[in-house]
# Entry
Amino acid sequence: MQHNYIDMRNTKYRSFVVLAFLLCVIGALVLLSCVYPKEGISLNGRELRFPYWLEFVFSQDTAAVEEQKVSPEELLEERIAQMRIDEEAAFLDFFASNPARLSFPYCIVTDTLGNIVPFDSLPHDSLQRDYSYFDDFYSALDKADEQLVGISHYGDSQIEEDRITKQLRGRLQTQFGGGGVGLLPFKHTYYNLSVSEVLKGNYTIYSPISYYRDAERSSNNYGPLLQASGIDGTCSLHIFPRKNTESYSGHYFSHAVVLSSAGVSLTAKDAIKKEVSSSTEMCITDFVMPDSTTNLYLDISGKGDIYGVSLHNSTGVVADNIALRGSSGIIFRSVNQEQLKQYFSVMNTRLILLEFGGNSMPAIHSENAIHNYIARLLRDIEILKRLAPDAKLLFIGPSDMVSLSGGVPHTLPMLEKFDTYAEEMMNRNGVAYWSMFRAMGGANSMVEWVRARPQLAASDYVHFTRTGAAKVGDLLTDAVLTGYNYYKMREKYNQPIDSLMVQLEDVDCDTVDNNE
Amino acid sequence: MPDILEHIFKYDPSSPLLFTQFYFWAFFALVYAVFAFIVSIGKWSNGKRLMRNAFLFFASLFFYYKTSGLFVLILLFVTLSDYLIARFIHLSHQRSHLHSARFWLVVSVVIDLGLLAYFKYPYFLTNMLNDMFGLNLQVFDVFAWIGNGLSREGRFSVDQIVLPVGISFYVFQIISYTADVYHKRVEPVTNILDFGFYVSFFPQLVAGPIVRASEFVPQLYKPFALSRRQMGMAVFWILNGLGKKIILSDFLAVNFIDRVFDNPLLYSGFENLSALFFYSLQVYADFSGYTDIAIGVAMLMGFYLPKNFNSPYKAPNPHNFWKRWHISLSRWLQTYLYIPLGGNRRAGFGTYFWIVVISTIAIVLTGSWIVGTVIFSIAIVVVLVSIFNKEHRKKMYANLNSFITMLLGGLWHGASWNFMIWGGLNGVGIIVYKFWRDMSWHWRMLLLTLLLAADIALLHLYPSPILNVLSAFLWLVFAGSLIRYVNHLITAHQTLSPRRQTFEAGLGNAWAVLLTFIFITFTRLFFRSGSNLDPATANQEAWETAVNMLTQIGSAWNTNTILEVVLSYANVYVFFVVGMIIHWMPDRFKRWYRLRFAALPLPVMLVMVVLVVFVLYQFVSADLQAFIYFQF
# Structure
């Protein structure tokens, strides 16, 4: 072999030999791509692929996202511009066509005897939307200077860290008043963009959805956060605004409402203690601060559960961020519902946002699976309707989610169908819908969100970055406030919707102008 | 048809000519066809050389245009300016006008570094001026404004400055040429086409290695020569590079690393730590993979680029690491920064100048006078100690200049607090190693014990994730050192057999390699967090990412989920382990299989190439690893 190497060192190659070799390699690859099955070859459950030669020439990646020429920034600007134009032209146009619109539930149709007619038996075109669906919530917002208006935002990891909710809370509190970050777990199991805590003492976290689930825990008392902390002894808790974050209304509160089981003794520094409820289901203790504050010092002793601490003002908007990592949203049936009912009542919860579906999407491969999932979800939503009779429900569909199957980025195959079906079924069951997928830009928009600079979505093609989440939060808030402006416009003219619709084209721009 | 032509010839920012894309190889095959024709016809002559170099110059300009668009004009500008300046320097030398030569050198450096600063640090400089003087200046792209004026269209955006691809590399390369001409290490290139080819040679244009004039200019005049083995080696380097880039870099990044760095707080401490280690391998595989391909491609054309990586994670200490990692940059910094600063001989004007500049930068980046003042004070104390302590003066100067070099090396990568920390940590690592090397075992153990005690006390008083991480590292160093110390005490007065000596040396080296790898990986936290960001928000974002990852690594642990994480991302973990095993294989073994490959008959090599491309495509086209949640 040594001789061979020496020979090789001395053998000079002409450049044409190298060129011939290069051309042979390219030729062999083209030949392989021509004869290789386009659908690939399956080997031990793995798909071995090789591209057709034309795909070599025309980059797959570019082709796959060709329709997404517009950057997310431009797309968002378009959305916002489109929102404004639509608002000035006609709200109804907006509600009918804008990708970032709220989709209102259908009006219930009754026959001449007053019996409800099933939607299935009516032509789809004849279904009317109930644009007054959120009126009670908007009316409550108008009276937020004299009452508390609770919003509970349940969702999966997409809203972790107080994402999306923070934008909604901040803007609603700025416009309608209020303070505080809403309901917080006793022990933060994930980061919170708004507040930090220092917790000392022994505690055990219980949750019906996670690794904290304890098989031996016989109780299904998890409170509205669906997370309880069992204590036995003494604990001290200090909650304060997160350092290096811009100050906003969510940092300031005058009430700290602690949810606990019986047998727990609570004291808060400098606060007047008021017992709101001491039912067997859940004790609710309200600590009234002498003034608006940013810090809570709480001492806890005894044996029992803490279900959470809500920080808010006596009036105004309070929005809870309740992120349930890994959850499909089918969870409310398995917890103590009386606790939720009690909480929604005390907090005057008028809007419940549900953002789920993302965790189920990778496992959904057929329309049947979509139908089954939505049907199960609706059963849980019915429970929520019963528990919070004064609250309006808004379901937020999953974001665009992309997989790189075959090296080509594309939206999960069933996602668009899921979004359409979920919207239809929510609307038929008295729940409003907001399509995050559509608002982002539809199919394959996630690719552009990932590629955007600053990056708007993470490289798992599922989660948003903080910047992206803030954009989504703003889009959602814009949609909610557009509905509010429509409500105000109708209130101003005090006319029935049908007659007003005719006049909408003449709506005064000032009346429509809204969210600033 | 016009669409295809437009696709081929028009600059499209979304599809640059990358080594991992088909387009590049089609481009290379076409370039090679013309190149082969030029070098094959007739006898070797100056005209033929010029034709070859001119052709490769224009091919390289097209490559750069496809990669970076109209920034090719910047490349042409610096090529022309430094070509002329080098000629002026040479003329000044011939007339013994030393001041004139120095003047032209300064002009060249000001132009080159000015351009680099203009494109690389505009946001940083604007923020600095705004912060210092309470202004509200905005970034304004003069070149875009001129472009708009000339084209009479609002084609270019003036309110942002985009960094041209590879500018950091070719600017350094050009500076090396002018400096080498100034120092008479190389004769100036007489023909601008030859010089343009040296500056823009496409394999190394956008990601190095930084080819110094003294190494490459002589090759400009040599005829094409390629042995059978060299051709085999070139093919091997290309395949090796593609494999590193696609499997160890892109696959790991897409399926694990990027998602953790994008949202570290969504992942547990173990996942964050894994991502950090994977990133260590990824950044090496990415960078060295790219240069492997560059070396292979250049070699097929008969040009030889310097080795840029030498199994860096085999380094037993941070000092040695920098002799193995991005060698061309390390050598550039040593030749054109460290030595002019005074090296290990003195602290000159440059040393003091950079101390002030770095302290100012630290103040601007952190927004805190304390940080800058501390850096400045430490530097001044070191200088004073050096002045009054003759015994250790050289060592102090060397450490000071070396630290400044590392900090500036960090800033070369980008104007972010993270890059400065990264450079600083590497500088500290090198200095600590040098002190450690010169200490006796007793002092080492005493120092480690004190450090550990201090860390434990601090941890007790101020529990925090960063102290947890520091504590874990110190325990690791302490445990290994204790074992070695005890062994040292036991065997101090024994005569060991050569076999035992080799075994112990090997074990000690393995331990040192592991510690160095862990240390370098930790510094990567700051490097990766600052990479690929929008320059306008890079500083804050990079800092947040690094802090969040540290927080998770130092606190969010749930040991119950570790096995589940590993099993769920089994393929990612397997590729990491395999990658590291290959990396740590003995050099002799690697050389053996390279030569075996190079010796393969061409038809067999052809089949191997097709097979490797097929396998690599499976990774390119693999489904994205689904996201998995682990509670922590």
